[in-house]
Specification:
- The chain has one helix at residues 53-61; strands at residues 7-10, 13-16, 27-30, 34-39, 42-48, 80-85, 91-94, 97-100, 109-115, 118-122, 128-133, 148-149, 161-166, 172-175, 178-181, 190-195, 199-204, 207-213.
- It is mostly beta strands.
- The protein folds into 3 domains: 7-61, no CATH class; 80-149, no CATH class; 161-213, no CATH class.
- The strands form 6 sheets. Strands 11-10-9-6-12 form a 5-stranded antiparallel β-sheet, with no helix packed on it. Strands 13-16-17-18 form a 4-stranded antiparallel β-sheet, with no helix packed on it.
- The protein is globular.
- The model is unreliable at 228-241 (pLDDT under 50).
Length: 241
C-alpha cells in the first residue's frame, strides 16, 4: 500500500510514486537488474534495482512470492548492445551523450545492453557491473555506432558493489557503518568505494587512495554521495525530473 508520503520502501530501496497514489495498492516486481511497479496489472514505473541476492532472499523469506515474466513490453523482442571503452573520467559516449559508467571502470571495454527503459553495463567476463536508466529512445538505438542485436539472456549480477561517499573535513568517510580514513588531502572530494567481500578500495580522482580490511558485516543501503556529507538515504526522484 502506498503511504501518504508517496515514498515506498522495499528491501532497503526507496521508490518514489508521489502522494497522488497514496492509499493505492501496488505490486512490485523485482530482480537484481530492475524493479517494476504495477497497479491493476499495468506497469506504471520502472527503475534500476538496488536489490542484491541478500535483499531478494530476505524478501522471499518474509512472504514475497516468485514473480512471473518480466512486465516490460515485449515489442519486437529486440534488445540492443554496443561496445564502448570507458574514458579517463568514467564516462562512455552513446550517440551525442556522455553516460557515467564509473571511474573504477576507466580504460576498460564494456558492453552496454539496452532493454526497455534500462541499460546494463556489462564487464568483459559477462558480469553485470551497473544498471542505469537508458537515455536513448528505443527507435534510435539501431542507429548507434556498433549497434547489434543482444544476447538472448540478460547478464547475471556479479562483481563488487560500488558506492560513492563525500570525504569529511577530517579526511574520513563511512561505508556500511565502518569508518575509513582517506586522508586530509582529499577532504571535500567525492570518493568511489569498491566494496569487496574482504576489503574496501577507495578511489579518488581516478587513483586508489586507500585499501582497508572490511571489518563490518552491515549491509549497504546508500549508494550515492550527498553534497553536505550527512548520512542520509539517497532519494529516487520521479522519472522525468
Amino acid at each position: 500500500m502506498v503511504p501518504p508520503s508517496g515514498n515506498l520502501w522495499i528491501g532497503g530501496q526507496q521508490v518514489w510514486l508521489g502522494p497522488a497514489l497514496s492509499g493505492r495498492q501496488v505490486t512490485l516486481w523485482a530482480d537484481a537488474v530492475s524493479l517494476h511497479v504495477l497497479a491493476d496489472g499495468a506497469r506504471i514505473k520502472t527503475v534500476p534495482s538496488r536489490l542484491g541476492v541478500t535483499e531478494l532472499a530476505r524478501l522471499a523469506a518474509s512472504g514475497a512470492r516468485p514473480a512471473g515474466p518480466c512486465p516490460l513490453p515485449a515489442g519486437d523482442g529486440t534488445v540492443i548492445e554496443v561496445d564502448r571503452t570507458v574514458n579517463a573520467t568514467g564516462g562512455v559516449s552513446l550517440g551525442d551523450q556522455q553516460i557515467g559508467a564509473g571511474l573504477p571502470l576507466a580504460g576498460q571495454r564494456v558492453t552496454l545492453r539496452m532493454e526497455g527503459p534500462l541499460m546494463a553495463v556489462i564487464g568483459h567476463d559477462g558480469s553485470l557491473l551497473r544498471t542505469l536508466a537508458c537515455p536513448i529512445p528505443a527507435g534510435r538505438r539501431w542507429r548507434l555506432r556498433g549497434a547489434r542485436r543482444a544476447r538472448s539472456l540478460p547478464p547475471l549480477p556479479g562483481g563488487p558493489i560500488t558506492v560513492q561517499r563525500r570525504v569529511s573535513c577530517r579526511g574520513a568517510l563511512m561505508v556500511a557503518r565502518q569508518k575509513i580514513h582517506a586522508g586530509m588531502i582529499h577532504a571535500g572530494k567525492t570518493a568511489t568505494v569498491i566494496c569487496e567481500n574482504n576489503h574496501f578500495r577507495v578511489v579518488i580522482d581516478g587513483e586508489t587512495a586507500a585499501v582497508v580490511p572490511r571489518t563490518t558485516t552491515s549491509e549497504i543501503h546508500r549508494y550515492k554521495a550527498n553534497a553536505t556529507g550527512k548520512r542520509t538515504q539517497a532519494r529516487l526522484t520521479p522519472q522525468g525530473q
